[in-house]
Amino acid sequence: MNDFGVPDGIDVLRVFCGPDGRHGNALGVVREGSAYPDETSRQALARALGFSETVFVDDPERGRVDIHTPGLRLPFAGHPLVGAAWLLDLEVLELPVGDVFARQDGEFTWITVRPEWAPPRTLERYASAAEVEALTGPPPGEGWLYVWAWEDEAAGRVRARAFPRRGDERDAGGIVEDEATGAAALLLSAALGRALNIRQGRGSQLLTAPAPDGTVEVGGRVLLVHTGTAGA
């Protein structure tokens, strides 16, 4: 264990940072996935770290990765893939759902995915960005909720917040509000059929761009906040 509070060999990133480099969603990346060889050990580490997701790299050259929340294994998730693509400088990531293509464009890292890969999300439109801002916690109800409103509809600018809102919190690990949610952003972009510039949570930024073939690109900034490399 080190001063950052995570075991050696684990990088910590912030994905979908705002223009000022702040905010974004924390992500743990285990470069040597073999150090945690089975699902039990991986789940235990993800729970101990407490990030919304932790990525285990099983093959850095082929881009084979395994994603865990504090409560379960995921076949797909947005911000872990953007973060892993940036950290490992990969053009392809191998997942159970299929290959995810990635690219770098200036300060943004993009992944191309299919909306059907994303887990279900309830997308609820509010009348104004101010109403989204005013929420002091999850609205009543059950199930994963993504609330959003236009900040500038003509420009495709959206204000959004995300609430796991699970009954027993087994998969969200007790996370009340998700700071930056790539899966929900791509579902909203697909539903609206247009590119979006989303401000989520406290100030994270997510960009999306749907393509004619039904895929959606999701992009954002990634920052390394802790390196697990020995001696770094």
Tell me what you see in this structure.
Helices cover 17% and strands 38% of the residues. The protein has 4 helices and 14 strands. Strand 7 (98-105) and strand 8 form a beta hairpin. The protein starts with 9 loop residues before the first strand and ends in a 6-residue tail after the last strand.
Question: What's the SSE blueprint?
Answer:
Blueprint: E1 10-17, E2 25-30, H1 39-49, E3 53-59, E4 64-68, E5 73-74, H2 78-88, E6 92-95, E7 98-105, E8 108-113, E9 122-125, H3 129-134, E10 145-152, E11 157-163, H4 182-192, E12 196-200, E13 204-210, E14 216-226
Parallel strand pairs: 2-3, 9-10, 11-12
Antiparallel strand pairs: 1-2, 1-14, 3-4, 4-5, 6-7, 7-8, 8-14, 10-11, 12-13, 13-14
Mind summarizing the main beta sheet?
A: 14 strands, mixed
Decide which structural class fits the backbone.
Answer: alpha+beta
Mean pLDDT: 92
Strand content: 35-45%
Number of strands: 14
- Poorly predicted runs are none
String of helices and strands: EEHEEEHEEEEHEEHEEE
Q: Report the C-alpha radius of gyration, rounded.
A: 17 Å
